[in-house]
Amino acid sequence: MHAVTVGIAPLSPEDVLAVAREGAGVVLSADAENEIAASRKIVESLAEDVRPHYGVSTGFGALATRHIPLDRRAALQRSLVRSHAAGSGPEVEREVVRALMVLRLSTLATGRTGVRVETARVYAAMLSAGITPVVHEYGSLGCSGDLAPLAHCALAAMGEGTVRDGSGELVPAAQALAAAGITPVVLEEKEGLALINGTDGMLGMLVLACHDLRRLLRSADLAAAMSVEALLGTDAVFAADLQALRPHPGQAASASNMRVLLAGSAVMASHRTPECTRVQDAYSLRCAPQVHGAARDTVAHAESVAGRELSAAVDNPVVTVDGRLESNGNFHGAPLGYVLDFLAIAVADLASMSERRTDRFLDVARSQGLPAFLADDPGVDSGHMIAQYMQASVVAELKRLAVPASVDSIPTSAMQEDHVSMGWAAARKLRRGIDGLARVLGVELLTAARALDLRAPLVPAAATGAVRDLVREQVPGPGPDRYLAPEIEAAVELVASGAAVAAAETVTGPLH
């Protein structure tokens, strides 16, 4: 795989994904190194300035009134990193750590932080060598940046603490750096602060979440289309002219997907007769484009926020373009915390609607002639009864995770840092929410595929039929009860990996 170039220009979401998930290496551009070197000269010129400069000649947080003598300023930076590497709890995922490291490096590359070129090069070398510092679940309040998570990364660059090497083995940082031929950095003025004062953890998780949700939104449209079809619903409500009466772009995209997915369905055609007395379908079928579309528009908004943050140079103090060293509040995570919480609401609602569609299949009063719980011999067999229980348990959890983190604030640092964003917590719960959404959609897909089989000899649409056939490669068709958990996991993987959507797209072409 080619290396990602980190330069003065912002990283793209695709760059972040390549480094975080695909293990791409990193190189600093010559322009970035020149900009870093230029701003470093400004920091060095302040070394003997009698005026206080935060983080260069002062302490941190509530200790900012303490003047630090020249001969103690390098120790100040090392102490900062060691004391702030105070995370606790389970390890954070490798992809999150790699994302936050490459995003911190991207800010260093702007030349606004005042670090030395060799410090930035150590981060690039660690990423290229696959060295992943151990970062913990708890510790960040999302204000003054993701201090604790970033401090664990900076500590590893100093050759201290614990990392996972390229093979995933847990080793001392000094050992991993030595094996990769990387000389640990010895921090100088301003550098410790520059390495830890950013929103990179929140931003990295937001970029990953938006990518995952784009995939899951197509899966949601697919699962909903299969449910409408197998429940003998109507696709007339998805007509373009009806959707255009309410011109939300996400709604139009979801409705378009459902139209092409259901095109040519013999199941749909079978009940377009005068004998059909249903006037309109339940909301969970009829309003799928409106709900899925609102989630799409929410993701689009979150992506616009992420795009602006990818263009940011977050540090405090910052070296301005005209050469001043100025304090600021750009490290506050509110812009990211808000959209991370907004996405968690959309995730919970998507899953809630999916669970309601699934439940309709299992109730003989609403399933349009399907056997109770889609069971082979209802009473002896339970069919998908408990699969829906699993969905319900996940949906309940997603509703709890939708409670905003960003409305909370606990003052810290002797009331100097008296309002914090909790953006890291918002990002962590969103990741759990996305996993839960994939599980709920997986059960709907599995259930709808079984129901389509039970509609035989009627033939589904070519696109939904292709997905049903893919499911059948992993899971047998209707029959007596089997060990259900592996079948659910197989369906979840088809959703999470995008394989189910890819199967439909062999017929429809790319979905929105």
Automatic annotation (TrEMBL):
Q: Main EC class of this protein?
A: lyase
Assign the protein's first listed, main location to one coarse class. Answer: cytoplasm
Q: Which UniProt keywords apply?
A: Histidine metabolism, Lyase
Listed under catalytic activity are: L-histidine = trans-urocanate + NH4(+)
User: SUPFAM superfamilies of this UniProt entry?
Assistant: L-aspartase-like
Any one GO MF annotation of this record: histidine ammonia-lyase activity
State which Enzyme Commission number(s) the record gives: 4.3.1.3
Q: Where in the cell is it found?
A: Cytoplasm
Quote the Pfam families the UniProt record gives: Lyase_aromatic
Which pathway does it serve?
A: Amino-acid degradation; L-histidine degradation into L-glutamate; N-formimidoyl-L-glutamate from L-histidine: step 1/3
* PANTHER family with a match to the protein in the record: HISTIDINE AMMONIA-LYASE
Of which family is this protein a member? Belongs to the PAL/histidase family.
Q: What name does UniProt use for this protein? A: Histidine ammonia-lyase
Query: What is the scientific name of the source organism?
Result: Pseudonocardia xinjiangensis
